[in-house]
């Protein structure tokens, strides 16, 4: 309509004025018609647009047909066919007993005797949420931590989560993770704080809510990501050695101020038992007690030197020590490594050792006191 008044076929003002008037008239007319349509639509909307009704599994459910009076007579359909599930009718109400997921569906009611549709209900059967399982961890110490949570039971209906983090009587800003649905990030408001953190995760759906609170101190949730780019390479002329190198996890923000220590485990494929070495502040280690000619599997874990727990194991790498040239199996080669004292790397009894894919947390961490002692020597020996 604006276009009309700008239209200049011959540049005459009078004509332009008339066109502009006409445009106003048309606009007004349009508004009236539109308003009428909106009112009519609003009136019909409650009858035509389906509404949601959420009910607990196992309960008896009453669905009310619109706002019809008690003496109204209606008939019901579900998904366009007659209701076959056990039910009874009470005027404008349909009552289903002991509902389960099979009762889900689109229910429509029609007023008798004309059969005009008066309401449409989407029935969703579900269960209220239970207390979610919550874990928090800092892999970016001292920047911040994240918490993740999950439902222990399926609710069958949409469930959302609210997260509240308190520290020193103050609510902290919580940021949703861009990728993981049930995860959020929090920055440490201060480092070396002795005040505990309280994290309240509340699961909410149409049938109820339930919350879990976890509390922890900064130092207890520190767990780095595993070391990265682990490599193991044979050493020429050394049939019992493997050189292992790795990088600190790239997510760890300040390796200089918050150094990591490392835990190496290795075993030949043919044996179940791992051997372990703990190393402080070094990103390489030479295994000196490998079985000649055997393929090894090697993994590394990381931990803050002072606080927290061990990371998960790094991706496993495989390597086989340098294989002696079959022809000149000279004693010289043997002298090369017989000079090295037998390694004192103690194999952990398998019952106490961290299991295959598990991080060396808890049990292994406790074993470390024993280890640092026994293995410390070995590590020094190995460096020579
Ligand atoms: C109605 O249709 C939905 C979706 O197809 C189905 O899951 C549900 O079981 C049906 N409900 C009934 C009562 O037949
Ligand atoms: C946890 O958060 C929920 C939702 O905000 C709230 O209803 C509940 O009271 C909180 N629990 C505690 C112990 O603060």
UniProtKB/TrEMBL annotation:
Residues 58-109 form the Ig-like domain. Keywords: Glycoprotein, Immunoglobulin domain, Repeat, Signal. InterPro entries: FN3_dom (IPR003961), FN3_IL27B_N (IPR056621), FN3_sf (IPR036116), Hematopoietin_rcpt_L_F3_CS (IPR003530), Ig-like_dom (IPR007110), Ig-like_dom_sf (IPR036179), Ig-like_fold (IPR013783), Ig_sub (IPR003599). Residues 343-353 have a biased composition (Polar residues). One of its GO terms (cellular component) is membrane. Residues 331-358 are annotated as: Disordered. It holds the Pfam family fn3. Belongs to the type I cytokine receptor family. Type 3 subfamily. This is Ciliary neurotrophic factor receptor.
